[in-house]
Amino acid sequence: MKRRFLLAAIAAVTVATALPAVAAPKRLSASEIDTLLAGNTISGTWSGTAYHQYFATDGTTLYVPDGGEDDEGKWRVNADTNEYESWWRSTGWTPYAMVRTDEDGYAWVNGDRLEPFTVQEGRQLE
């Protein structure tokens, strides 16, 4: 019995060490967020809806959801909390954490889920 338990334990350790390590998403700092967004466009999904968004260096932003109405808002980065903050007429200022994912991508933290996006240099909206 002991021998069977020992063999099972050795097999479990061998399998566990052979599996690739999955890195947890790394939270971005305020300066990383600012560098990533300022003057650039992102494309992603938010709660299942695809969108594009441009972040002007003057703190304005344009949100363009697929099949929806464009919306203009404001954005800023809070250096004290390392969070992105957005302002929309419907919600006011709302903070969000941002992370770098293990696929070298990026994502917003939206409650208990990640909303992935990619970054394109410059303004990529009409």
Structural topology:
Blueprint: H1 2-18, E1 26-27, H2 30-37, E2 40-46, E3 49-55, E4 60-65, E5 71-78, E6 83-88, E7 92-96, E8 98-100, E9 106-110, E10 113-120
Antiparallel strand pairs: 1-8, 2-3, 2-10, 3-4, 4-5, 5-6, 6-7, 8-9, 9-10
Textual characterization of the structure:
The protein is of the alpha+beta class and 126 residues long. It has one domain (23-120): Lipocalin. The protein has helices at residues 2-18, 30-37, and strands spanning 26-27, 40-46, 49-55, 60-65, 71-78, 83-88, 92-96, 98-100, 106-110, 113-120.
Please outline the major beta sheet: 10 strands, antiparallel
Helix fraction?
10-25%
Low-confidence stretches: 3-20
Total strands: the figure is: 10
* Structural class label: alpha+beta
CATH class call: Mainly Beta
How many structural units, i.e. domains?
1
Span of the ends, CA to CA = 71 Å
